[in-house]
Amino acid sequence: MHMNVQTSAARPGPPLYRARKKTSEVRDQLEVASAELGLTNAVLGRNLPESVKDSSDVQRALSQNEAIEEKVQEAADELQAVTELLAEEVAERERLEQELANRPPS
Amino acid sequence: MGKNASLANGVGWRDETSEVEVPVKLLLVEDLPQMQGVVLDVLSTVGDFELVQAVSTEAEANLWLEENEGKWDLAVIDLILEQGTGLGVIAKARSRANGAKVVVFSDYATEGIRKHCVKLGADAAFQKSDDLQAFLAFCGALAKQHPGS
Description:
heterodimer, A: 106 residues, mainly alpha, rod-shaped, B: 149 residues, Rossmann fold, five-stranded parallel beta sheet, 37% helix, globular
């Protein structure tokens, strides 16, 4: 039993590490996506003729696009918080593993 | 030339005694060939820049960055490209920068877009129409910190 614990402790927990890496990657992608939505809005805002922009449907679409940009940005920020929590969890796990490794056999 | 040059804000020049002029190695991400020429022309007025690569799509830029780590000192990135956007390039360039500078130079570098750019890792973002002088000042300062200057 003890041997199993030691073996497990000597290896980093792959799912936790993978989760941290994955959330970080997804956060980066969301950050870019939010920026690209902002860029799309800027391009449309500048290049659409006023007559087109005056259309209520187009106005709604532009507003909706802005709202989506904000939502994606919020999701990216929240995922950043998750990444930080996972990093704390990884650090705590490593600390416990170290403690366990240093403990004299009973 | 270059006798007193020192490591410039992490821009990767380390030979303080070099007498050899080493230009700022430039990666230019810009879809319009004409604009590529304009950027090179205006940069040549403020320092010694060597174009190491010009690309017109996000995919090309990201591939080049992956394969050429450490081979550039300054990336000038437009936002609207032939394929993709410069926004994805900023993040990739930042992750491979090793002290090099990442600058956005675009018609669409509005206040909101600038914030995005900086968040993604750009050192600065300039609007082509309004910020040319600031862009040149930034790049000129970079070139002046160069050992060959």
